[in-house]
C-alpha cells in the first residue's frame, strides 16, 4: 500500500502539469487523507496546504462557477460542487492546524455567517460551526489575546449547533453492520467523528480556564472541559474496540490523549485543593469529582490498553509515544488519589514539538505535557501550590480580556511566602503574612463577635479569639506592637496592652 501511494504521489500529486486542475486538486486532498490515516500528520498538513494553493490559483475561493475552472475530464465537471469542495478544504485544514499548532490557510470561511448557516441542514451547519470556532481559537492564540466574552459567544454557538441535532444522534453508535444497509458502518463512523470534533472544540475553547481561580464563569469552563473529556473517551473506546483498522482516524488518538490530561488535572486538583475541613468553603469547581473517579479511571485505563495494543501489535510509533506519557500521567493521578501532593500548572512551551508530546524533567519529579496551541501542562510532585503575585500586568482571570501569557499562568491559593501590600517592613523579618490584613486595615472581633474595621484609634477589646496558627500569632502581635508604638492614643490603652 505504501509503495503504491508513493508512486501516485511522485507521478500525480507532485506533477505540476496535472495538479493545475480540479482532478489534480482532489488527488492532493486524497493524499492528505491517506497521510492523516497513516499517522503522518505533518505530511497531511503540507498536502492540504498544497491543495488550497491550487484552489486559490483556480480562484475557487472567490466562489466562481465551475465553467471557469479547469477540468481534465468532462464527467468531473458535471459532478463537481465548488462550494462543498471549498468547505472540505477548510475543514481538513482547520482540523490539522489546531491538532499540530500550525498556521491555517488564508481561505476565508465565508460559509459561517448567520445568513449562510441557515441554508444548511443541522449536520452540515454544525460541521461549519466547528470550522469557524477552530479558526477563532487559532487566531486568538496567535494574536496573544484571549477574550472571555468571545469564549462565551463560541460556547453558545456550539450549544445551539448541538441542540439543532436530534437527541438520539448524540448516542454512541454501535458499529454493527446491517445487511439491508451496507453504508451503516460508514455513516456511524462519520457520525462519531463529528461528535468527537464537537467535544474537541469544547475542550479547546475552555481548556485555558482549567487552571484559573474559582468563580462562576471559570467553574463553568472547568465543568464543560471535564464533561467533554468524558464524552471523548467513551466514544474513543467504543470506536477503537469495534474497528480493527487501527490506522484509521489517527487524530482521535490525540483527542483521547488530551481528554486524559484534562481528567487527570481535574482529579489531582480535586485532591490537592479541596483537602480537609479547613478548605470546605474553597470551591474550585472540582469538588463533585470524588465519586466519579472510579469510572473516569476505568475509561482512561481502557484507552491506555487500546493504545498499548496498537503499539505492540502494529509497531505504531504514535501509539508508543502516547502510551509512555499516559503511563506517567496515570501513575501521578493514582499517587494523588492515595494522598501524595502534586501541583498542576501551565506555561508556554518554548521547545515543545508540533504534536502532543511529553517528557519527565526536574530529575523525574515533573511531568511536562505539550499540547499544541495551548502550551505545556506541568505535573510537579511534592508542592501543594505555587503562588503568582497579582500585579497590574497580571489581571484577574475573570475579566473579559487577558493575554495568553497571563492566561497560562496558574492562579492558585496564596502561599505563605507571598507578602501582601502593606507588609513590606515585616516581609524582611521572615514572618509568614499570607492571611493577615495590611497595617491599619486588619479586622478585630468585638465583644459581641462582630467584625469592626480600622480600629487603630479606638480602644481594643479586653479579650479576643487569637488565630490558632503560631506564626500568624507572632505577626499579629508584631502588628499591634507597631501600632502601639506609632499611635500614642492607642499606646495608653490598658486593654490594648492586655491584649498584646
TrEMBL record:
The keyword Transcription applies. Keywords: Nucleus, Transcription, Transcription regulation. This is Transcription factor domain-containing protein.
